Amino acid sequence: MLQRSYWLNGREDVAAAVERAKSEASKLPRLDSVLAVVFLKRTAVPLWGNILGSVRSAFPGAEVCGATVDMSVTDGTRWLSPEWGEDSDILGSLTFMFFERSSARAMVLPDDPVTAGTTLRQALDEDANARAVGLLISDMRVNFTPLFREVSQVRSDVVFFGGTAWPWNTPEGRRLFCGDVALTRGIVIVVFSGRELHACENSSFGWAPMGPELMVTRMKDDFTVCELDGKPAGEVLEYYLGWRESWDPLEDAMAFPLCFERGGQLVGRHMNAFLDDGSVQLDADLRVGERLRISCGAPFAILREAVANHRRMVDFRPEAIAAVSCAGRHQMLRENRGQEFDVLRQLAPSAGFYSYGEVQRNGGEISITNLMLVTVGFREGEPTGAEPVIRVAPLHLQKQTSVIAHLLHMVDVMTQEWEDARGRLVVLAERDALTSLLNRRAMEESLRQVLRERAKKPQDVAVLMIDLDDFKGINDTYGHAMGDKALVALADILRNSTRRNDAICRWGGDEFFVILTGASRAVAERIAERIRSAVSILNLLPDGRRLTLSVGVASVVPGDTPTQLFHRVDEALYASKRMKGKNRVMFR
């Protein structure tokens, strides 16, 4: 396969670019499919008809699509629209992808997102050779959540990438193009397919998390967060960022986005607006229960992560690269932005655009994120030729940006030191000093969380209350050191007898408490009996006497509060201890 890109300054450049592309394509031994992707300034919309006609004349049957955008990028160089404070004679870019043994199909998805999702999923399910899907989304007002929910069910080896072409507030005069169709709002997709086609996705963030975690506790809709940690979101963010004093909705929001983990990857959310009702509008979705942190954009960190991620594409050996970078990265890196493409320039021709929300797939789930650089390498067949030698020049920032970068690096290091110290304090605050199990306060919070989750998604949950029989006699007869040794031995048995997702704590003295998530009464009683039996064969006391314990078991029922559950399991424990000989498992 082959990729070639051309800048367009007018109609004459269109004709010249198409002729050059035709000459390049003639060198290929075979040509199965042609895709032409066009990115234009808003003022260059009239140029589309000329581009479409010229491409179709030279390459009958070619797929032609594109969009008006504010910034386009080709091999690391870019043009900007006047909206970004710069303007040039460049009106747009034209990129050809020539496939020798593969195909690219462009189509407009239906307006209804549910129908769009069904349509796209069906097309991909029927195409066993589909390797990647590129999406051009008009703007953030499109409700793409149902679409992404549906196509996330598509087999996991299909790569999804793309982005939104326009911000919330400037949809007027914008266009998406797909052949003869021009849309003011909607989604255009390209399906890349071929038995010998390979696609490799890489994504890079680079903003550094800072400060405490903030849980999303209430949302107005997918894009508007009302509460963080039960408090008005705007109030919480004002406390940390002081946005009322001076807040640039572009530059400051890009420098201090919210970030969190989704699908095992750190992703960002740009704060689009602080609303009068105390809520905060974002440029991509959030969900109740997700834990956020404010992050800070350090140019060195952003560039380092981009370079590291792109080096991992060396082994893939792409023949062409599609790139979608967030406009916020452009804003943060400023005159240093070209450095994030340095590795790509040495690997293969690259082309793409700057977006206002990037499409990517995390852990199988497709969603929109912010401030990401998403790159997709394409290759037909296996790698050929020698592995490229990549030379990465030392990162260098212009003076003003450099001062900010060093300051942010210092803050980042101090934040990490604070996190380490906080982690040690959390361990001290939440762990029992003798057994290293959770303490009672931490367990009570864990139980409240389990009950909240069970109310949303019902599942079996059981709890155990465990008490060493005649523990006072052990201390009195053998001394407190032996009593401590018995408690530590019981803690080890509890760890070895339960599962990784179960929670264990030292409730107090010789009492222990266990939460068994996903455990029915029968499973809980089996685990309790396993613990009791393991303790009964311990050879710990010097005179050969054996330890025994009593266990109470209770299952969570709908509407249970922590107090009600504690009461039932406590009754079960004391029913066990009232039995002759103790050493029993009882259920309530």
Q: How would you sum up this structure, described in words?
A:
- This protein has 15 helices and 31 strands.
- About 35% of the residues lie in helices and about 30% in strands.
- With about 600 residues, it is an alpha+beta fold.
- Strands 14, 15, 16, 17, 18, 19, 20 and 21 form an 8-stranded antiparallel beta sheet that branches. Strands 1-6-2-3-10-11 form a 6-stranded mixed beta sheet, with helices on one face. Strands 5-4-23-22-26-13 form a 6-stranded mixed beta sheet.
- Helix 3 (about 115-125) packs parallel to helix 4 and helix 12 (about 470-480) crosses helix 13.
Sequence-ordered SSE layout with sheet pairings:
Blueprint: E1 2-8, H1 11-25, E2 33-40, H2 47-58, E3 63-68, E4 71-74, E5 77-80, E6 92-99, E7 103-108, H3 113-125, E8 130-139, H4 145-151, E9 159-166, E10 176-178, E11 181-183, E12 187-193, E13 197-204, E14 208-221, E15 224-228, E16 231-232, H5 233-241, H6 251-255, E17 258-262, E18 265-269, E19 271-274, E20 280-282, E21 291-296, H7 299-311, E22 320-326, H8 327-333, H9 342-347, E23 350-355, E24 358-362, E25 365-369, E26 373-380, H10 399-430, H11 440-456, E27 461-468, H12 471-478, H13 480-497, E28 503-508, E29 511-517, H14 521-536, E30 549-555, H15 562-578, E31 585-587
Helix pairs in contact: 1-2, 3-4, 12-13, 13-14
Gyration radius from CA atoms, angstroms = 30 Å
The N- and C-terminal alpha carbons lie at a distance of 69 Å
Structural class call reads alpha+beta
Largest sheet: 8 strands, antiparallel
Mean pLDDT: 86
Helical fraction = 25-40%
Poorly predicted parts = 399-403
Q: How many helical elements? A: 15
Oligomer: single chain
Strand content: 25-35%
Number of strands: 31
